[in-house]
Design a protein that fits this description.
This protein is of the alpha/beta class and about 280 residues long. It has a single domain, classed as Rossmann fold. The strands form two sheets. Strands 1-2-3-7-6 form a five-stranded parallel beta sheet, with helices on both faces. It has a two-stranded antiparallel sheet with strand order 4-5. Helix 6 links the parallel strand 2 and strand 3. Helix 1 packs parallel to helix 4. The longest helix has 19 residues. It is globular, with a radius of gyration of 18 Å. The two termini are about 15 Å apart. The model has no long low-confidence stretch (mean pLDDT about 95).
Length: about 280
């Protein structure tokens, strides 16, 4: 596949187009999670339009479902539906491309968006795989604000209890949520220590760098007897200084002037990655 880092910046442009067309969306989290999704879909997971109906395919759940624009952009690039169609119809009346994942669309395992649900469902998927002796792996992406939900930690206990080494959770650790910083809203102690205490293999990665993510996923595949979690340290609004680390960009729609600057910044970074 082409340079994954450059691809992530190209797909950020599609996210912007969706949000402009739909007059809304969760742009900050879209930008922070993009490299995670690109690395999963174009390097790590066994999933494609060809094997979508195959029971041995890997499973993916976007628990932080409000970042659906990034998810749609990646699935479209993967060939599950046309990019032009999702941009034109995103968040329009009667459109299947709604503001949270819609499992009526090909490539999407479950509807999500009510935070705290994705990991419990993923535990169930992974446990089913173990019972069936199936080869698939299960991946769940959560937001760091989502970790305040109690159901996450019930799922963490269950994942450890059943030794689900076919399960990998990824935390989009951008340190901002809708109402402020995660440390102000609900303080995070060491996530490595917390997940380890729940019986998980825990590690950190640079979440906006595909090479770091690829290395982390490779290590996870070697872990036996317990589930794994990758704390992916990211930047909310990654891609342009207009948005980066600014709370209002959780779901802000850019003005024309902001749009032009963001698009220019994304292209500059994409070009830099192509010529590294």
């Amino acid at each position: 596949m082409e340079n994954l880092g450059a691809l992530a910046y190209e797909l950020r442009k599609d996210v912007l187009k969706m949000i402009i067309a739909g007059k809304g969306g969760h742009i900050g989290g879209d930008m922070s999670v993009m490299e995670i999704l690109v690395t999963l879909y174009f390097d790590e997971m066994n999933i494609s339009t060809e094997n979508w109906q195959d029971k041995s395919r890997d499973r993916f759940v976007l628990s932080k479902g409000h970042s659906v624009e990034a998810y749609y952009a990646v699935l479209a690039k993967k060939g599950f539906f046309p990019t032009e169609e999702v941009i034109a119809k995103f968040s329009q009346f009667g459109s299947p491309y709604i503001g949270h994942p819609n499992n009526k669309l090909p490539g999407i395992e479950m509807n999500s968006g009510s935070l705290g649900h994705g990991l419990p469902v993923s535990v169930g998927m992974a446990l089913a795989g173990k019972l069936d002796q199936a080869p698939y792996r299960v991946y769940a992406v959560m937001g760091d604000g989502e970790l305040a939900e109690g159901s996450v930690w019930e799922a963490a206990m269950a994942g450890s209890q059943y030794g689900l080494d076919n399960l990998c959770a990824v935390i989009d650790r951008n340190r901002l949520q809708i109402s402020g910083s995660t440390e102000e809203v609900m303080h995070h102690d060491s996530q490595i220590e917390r997940w380890t205490s729940f019986g998980w293999n825990a590690m950190e990665a640079e979440g906006n760098h595909t090479a770091s993510l690829k290395a982390a996923f490779a290590k996870v595949r070697q872990i036996k007897g317990k589930p794994s979690v990758i704390i992916a340290n990211t930047i909310k609004g990654c891609g342009s200084s207009v948005m980066e680390n600014k709370v209002p960009w959780h779901h802000k729609v850019p003005s024309q002037e902001e749009l032009e600057q963001i698009m220019a910044d994304l292209e500059e970074r994409r070009e830099a990655l192509l010529h590294e």
